[in-house]
């Protein structure tokens, strides 16, 4: 990805360099933007957000099981505390993710990124992209770097 000199490189911020930059580009592209640009239907973030949601949940569940001392009910409660839209939104806001997303024209006019749900989906897409590019370990490292979960 190429950024202006006054904007930090997103890969530097998240502490991960993509082997396949096209995956990152897809994670940063909203469906409306792709439609406006005439890009193929598969070039937007939606599928990556779904994948990222699953990866985040898997990472949290793995960490909870590894730390032990939890029964099924406790794991479910802790997981809900750790994986929620507010935490995802906060991580997205902390790294100013909205500045890197390719928004559709209407989304830009409406400042749609101010919706917590939208930024949460963008974080999920980013995590899904890292998972595709670098596996669960890479995704876990990025989650910790951006403050989703403590190291």
Description:
This is Ribonuclease III. Residues 7-135 form the RNase III domain. It comes from Methanospirillum lacunae. By secondary structure, this protein is mainly α. It has a single domain, classed as Ribonuclease III domain (Ribonuclease iii, N-terminal Endonuclease Domain, Chain A, Orthogonal Bundle), CATH 1.10.1520. It has helices at 10-14, 21-27, 31-37, 46-67, 72-82, 85-94, 105-110, 116-145. Helix 2 runs antiparallel to helix 8 (116-145), helix 4 packs across helix 5 (72-82) and helix 6 (85-94) crosses helix 8 (116-145). The model has no long low-confidence stretch (mean pLDDT 89).
Number of E-state strands: 0
Name the CATH homologous superfamily: Ribonuclease III domain
Helix content: 55-70%
Largest sheet: none
Distance from first to last alpha carbon: 27 Å
Give the overall silhouette: globular
Tell me the fraction of residues in β-strands, as a range.
under 5%
Helices, by number, come to 8
Kindly provide the name of the CATH class.
Answer: Mainly Alpha
Per CATH, which architecture?
Orthogonal Bundle
Radius of gyration: 16 Å
Would you list the SSEs in sequence order as H and E?
Answer: HHHHHHHH
Class inferred from helices and paired strands:
mainly alpha
And the CATH topology? Ribonuclease iii, N-terminal Endonuclease Domain, Chain A
| Overall mean confidence score, pLDDT | 89
List low-pLDDT spans: none
Structurally, how many domains make up the residues? Answer: 1
Organism: Methanospirillum lacunae
GO biological process, one term: RNA processing
Protein name: Ribonuclease III
GO molecular function: ribonuclease III activity
